[in-house]
Amino acid sequence: MDPLSITVSCVTLVTAVSRVTYSLTGFIREWRDASSDLRIISQELSSMQIVIGNLRNTFATKESTLPPNLKEQILGILKSCLQVVGGIEASLLKHANSRLGKGGYWALGGGKEDMAKYRSSLEAHKSALEITLELVSITISRDIKKDTTQILKEMAKLRQRLPIAQAQYRHSSPRWTPRKEMDNINRLTEIYQHEDEAYISGSNSDIEKSDTDIRTASNVSRPSTYQDYRSTAYAHTSTSIPYIQFSPYYHPQTDTSTHFPSTTVYLSAHTNTIHLGRYSKPRSQERNFVGFASRVVSRMHCDIWHKEGKWYIRDNKSLAGTWLNSERLSEAGRTSKPYRLRDGDVVQLGMDYHGGYDANGLEGYQDLKESWRHVRMFVHLGQH
């Protein structure tokens, strides 16, 4: 089934709901005895607009990969909603054209009973749409897990091939082996050779399932941090410097992530913790803070720290959530326990916020703004 048909149905239904909402407002002004019942119907229509808007955005941005039977179910619910909205509109016309007058038709002509019936149907269809929207979100999350699992498998295959490539490299260039290149190869051979029980994968069940043109301004002063700490290290010890690199990760099907430049943070001799949060000008000067220009990111969203050769991540009571390999670390407003962070993991901060509609219908729809997008990044861990 073509996703365009679902998008067209959403637009048609939103237009009809806006038209009926306008008629309801006029009727309430002229016949106040019906205001209490009709205001409830108007509120249900407004709630339905929000659900339809989120559903429309899912199918309008990209080619959907939802199962055909789920698409048919969504289209059927939208058609049923359109019939109910049409019935409400027809009943309002009867009120206007009745010989008994609006008040007489409402009290004696069965208008009140008709509206009660339509209200019940409207609530049922809205609940069905909300459940369907949850199924769509679950399906998209499952696709992200599958893609992440495939990436991990491909990286494991590359890790198995690295010893052979390293031997061929030495054989082809016996007199010239740059130390930096060989260190990179040695680090790659150690990817995923860990046994920590807190490792998060696509099948882990311990974690709960859950307007402006902006640019990321996470200007971490990498050269000065690196040079200061490096001079101390070479003067007193040969210990390497841990660092972490954040690079944008764009999902092929849900490419709505906030854009930001790759950022590398070298740990200094005075701190082993890096704070991730919403960008602000005063905090941009802090060497252990990485800011992202997105309103769904909390000011102190999460912490990442290095301890005894291992990296860890923790959510700091963020409202929009922190994800590690598609798994949410904690509920909204709750601090999570520490989770092990490994080279190649995918971290996501927040969820997309799509806004809603106003009383005029389509004119009130807010497209997904850059400043209301989530932040998804690929994490690279290393030693220099």
Automatic annotation (TrEMBL):
It comes from Pyrenophora teres f. teres. Gene3D superfamilies: 2.60.200.20. PANTHER family: CENTROSOMAL PROTEIN OF 170 KDA, LD47843P. It comes from the Eukaryota. Coiled coil: none annotated. This is FHA domain containing protein.
